Amino acid sequence: MNVQLTLPPKVTERAFARLAEINSDGPARPLRVAVAGGGCSGFQYDIRLDEPADDDLILQGSGQTVVVDPVSLPFLTGAVIDFSDELIGARFIIENPNASSSCGCGTSFSI
């Protein structure tokens, strides 16, 4: 796959606000958003609290940090990292314009 990073991922204020809530009881830890092989559609998102690496893309807002590793960046070009709180559950979600299809749960996608 040969994708150029023309538009970095964007993090919504709602996602930064939720991350601030998560970090309110201790030291602020960045939210890592990564793409890994696997899942029912070929790729899956790995979203977790993690320390940044030297080569990560750092996205900051509202005093919070989201990091994306360089391997995942081409898969997340132009993506929006958001937070959803609905009756079926609360979670960070990725609106990814690069995904040609995704599974019903939204954590797996194909390009």
Can you walk me through this structure?
The protein is mainly beta and 111 residues long. It has a single domain, classed as Hypothetical Protein Aq_1857, Chain: A (Sandwich). The chain is built from one helix and nine strands; from the N terminus they run E-H-E-E-E-E-E-E-E-E. The strands form two sheets. The chain has a six-stranded mixed sheet with strand order 4-5-2-3-9-8, with helices on one face. Strand 8 and strand 9 form a beta hairpin. The longest helix has 10 residues. The protein is globular and about 35 Å long. The N terminus is likely disordered.
Q: How far apart lie the N and C ends? A: 9 Å
CATH class, named: Mainly Beta
The domain tally reads: 1
* Mean of all residue-level pLDDT scores: 85
Number of contiguous helices? 1
- The share of residues in extended strands comes to 35-45%
Helicity range of the residues? under 10%
Which of globular, elongated, flat, extended, rod-shaped describes the shape?
globular
Largest sheet descriptor: 6 strands, mixed
User: What is the fold named in CATH at topology level?
Assistant: Hypothetical Protein Aq_1857, Chain: A
Protein name: Iron-sulfur cluster assembly accessory protein
Domain Core: 10-106
GO molecular function, one term: 2 iron, 2 sulfur cluster binding
Précis, in short:
The protein is mainly beta and 111 residues long. The protein has one helix and nine strands.
